[in-house]
Amino acid sequence: MSSLLLLQALAPAMTVPRHHFLISPLRLASAATVPFARRFSNAASSNKPEPLLSEPDLESGLYLVSTPIGNLEDITLRALRVLKCANVILSEDTRHSGKLLQHYNIKTPLLSFHKFNEREREPTILRRLHEGEAVALISDAGTPGISDPGMELARLCATEKIPVIPIPGPSAAIAALSASGLPSNEFTFVGFLPKHARSRRDRLEISAREAATQIFYVPPHGIQQFLVDAASSFGDSRHCVVAREITKIHEEFWRGTLGEANEAFATRQPKGEITVLIEGKLISDDEIPSEDFLEHELRELTAKGYTLSAAVKLVTEATSAKKKDVYALALRLFGK
């Protein structure tokens, strides 16, 4: 009875929609106990700020907040709460991120933080964190620090014993892998390849000899050259998936071999962010590579211009063979 009287006493102070002429104490009780996250989501979806009974403070620390990679609905309730309650939001592009914050009626101040100014910003950010502020970091899309700014700042915070808190969410690499149909029990995230041609080729040669699925980020203007280079290292028959515009209206998953991909994209200029996944090399876990196999791999690499030591290193990393055995074989084949 006492709780019923308390609810009736609170009723006049609560906001009641105009079309509800009567409201029961039970309904008031359920409304009063709706979790904060749900009330925040309702307010965000209606674009009308809802007054909250209390706004929980965030503990001081660096919050790495994942944001949508295309569809604005792909954001967690926890991410929304952190962005709303942080003292400042570090953003790769404040104009781009401003659209997301405006959509969810978030008024937290934005501060630009990208690869061209992160070193300059870091001392100020660290000072604010040491003073007890909660700092959120977002990228244009996906998870900060994964082929985006944030890795170095997270390292600095960890070194200085400042809490680094991940707020998990969207990631193009994981989304593409989950829907690719390629083996996902083991994978290597490579991200963007180096710009230098020799470094790109070296990285592809290493990936081509790994048994795990390989994941690359490729800019749309570079997809044709990437597929040509990949086919040269992996071979035309290796299966791949080209994922484009993930979670957006024109989402596409192209599947086939690298040879077929070169034909399909030779005259296409796709738009949007691209994730390319290539199946790993089929090598039995308990299989010891034969000497003929090792010789073939060494000859193939040296024919492509690799030094003897570089070829030995690549073959050793890609197989279960011992380095000393591969090196001894290389010396017998090619001399010093």
UniProtKB/TrEMBL annotation:
<dbReference type="InterPro" id="IPR014776">
    <property type="entry name" value="4pyrrole_Mease_sub2"/>
</dbReference>
<dbReference type="InterPro" id="IPR035996">
    <property type="entry name" value="4pyrrol_Methylase_sf"/>
</dbReference>
<dbReference type="GO" id="GO:0006364">
    <property type="term" value="P:rRNA processing"/>
</dbReference>
<keyword id="KW-0489">Methyltransferase</keyword>
<dbReference type="InterPro" id="IPR000878">
    <property type="entry name" value="4pyrrol_Mease"/>
</dbReference>
<dbReference type="InterPro" id="IPR018063">
    <property type="entry name" value="SAM_MeTrfase_RsmI_CS"/>
</dbReference>
<feature type="domain" description="Tetrapyrrole methylase">
    <location>
        <begin position="62"/>
        <end position="261"/>
    </location>
</feature>
<protein>
    <submittedName>
        <fullName>Tetrapyrrole (Corrin/Porphyrin) methylase</fullName>
    </submittedName>
</protein>
<dbReference type="Pfam" id="PF00590">
    <property type="entry name" value="TP_methylase"/>
</dbReference>
<keyword id="KW-0963">Cytoplasm</keyword>
<keyword id="KW-0698">rRNA processing</keyword>
<keyword id="KW-0808">Transferase</keyword>
<dbReference type="GO" id="GO:0008168">
    <property type="term" value="F:methyltransferase activity"/>
</dbReference>
<dbReference type="InterPro" id="IPR014777">
    <property type="entry name" value="4pyrrole_Mease_sub1"/>
</dbReference>
<keyword id="KW-0949">S-adenosyl-L-methionine</keyword>
<dbReference type="GO" id="GO:0032259">
    <property type="term" value="P:methylation"/>
</dbReference>
<dbReference type="InterPro" id="IPR008189">
    <property type="entry name" value="rRNA_ssu_MeTfrase_I"/>
</dbReference>
